[in-house]
Write a structure and sequence with these properties.
The complex is a heterodimer of chains A (about 110) and B (about 110). By secondary structure, chain A is mainly beta. Chain A contains no helices and 11 strands. Chain B is mainly beta and about 110 residues long. The chains are: A mainly beta (about 110), B mainly beta (about 110).
């Protein structure tokens, strides 16, 4: 099975940078995903890592180290609309997609 | 583009009643998933399917059943509803044939069991 850990809450100021860490223990690994979820809405895809290293998409970047079972999501130039829950998810060899509990990010003016 | 469609959006059930949550996708995706999300929590996998006629249990399958008779539809059945099944239910789908590799989610069904 999967064990996925991420912090419960983080607070940052508009314009700042926030890094959300995710550690996982898995019986098989076939990719790591980050999703954003605003309150009362469905999760939406942000990023995907299957190889070690950094993937950059505009203000959002995601990093993966498979040997350490570790990923982070970096949010730069924070905007008020970035206030949301960020979910780390791991896909295993059976193609199950398992989620962490999510990190609620609050952006303050 | 409809994507993943869930019905109903909201439902109140009495203890012991049964219902089916509908999920359909028009992207010809083989993989489909059902999750539940309790307040302030992440998503827990109930059942998933890798193609028509194939289903498998996730983390929390007890109290639920699924079927996958077509590629498009993946209904979730609740028998004998219990208050512990009060949650938001999300259906998701993804392709197994190259990018995009991420799962696409429906808008959710908010279920309350009283």
């Amino acid at each position: 099975g999967q064990n996925i850990d991420q912090p419960t809450e983080m607070t940052a100021t508009e314009g700042a940078i926030v890094q959300i860490n995710c550690t996982y223990q898995t019986s098989g690994f076939n990719g790591l995903f980050w999703y954003q979820q605003h309150a009362g809405e469905a999760p939406t895809f942000l990023s995907y890592n299957v190889l070690d290293g950094l993937e950059e998409k505009g203000r959002f970047s995601s990093f993966l180290s498979r040997s350490k079972g570790y990923s982070y999501l970096l949010l730069k130039e924070l905007q008020m609309k970035d206030s949301a829950s960020y979910l780390c998810a791991v896909r295993d060899y059976d193609y199950k997609l398992s989620f962490g509990a999510g990190t609620t990010v609050t952006v303050r003016a | 583009n409809a994507g993943v469609t869930q019905t109903p959006k909201f439902r109140i059930l009495k203890i012991g009643q049964s219902m089916t949550l509908q999920c359909t996708q028009d992207m010809n995706h083989n993989y489909m998933y059902w999750y539940r999300q309790d307040p302030g929590m992440g998503l827990k996998l109930i059942y998933y399917s890798v193609g028509a006629g194939i289903t498998d249990k996730g983390e929390v399958p007890n109290g639920y059943n699924v079927s996958r008779s077509t590629t498009e539809d993946f209904p979730l059945r609740l028998e004998l509803a219990a208050p512990s099944q009060t949650s938001v239910y999300f259906c998701a789908s993804r392709t197994d044939r190259g990018p995009p590799t991420e799962a696409f989610f429906g808008q959710g069904t908010r279920l309350t069991v009283v």
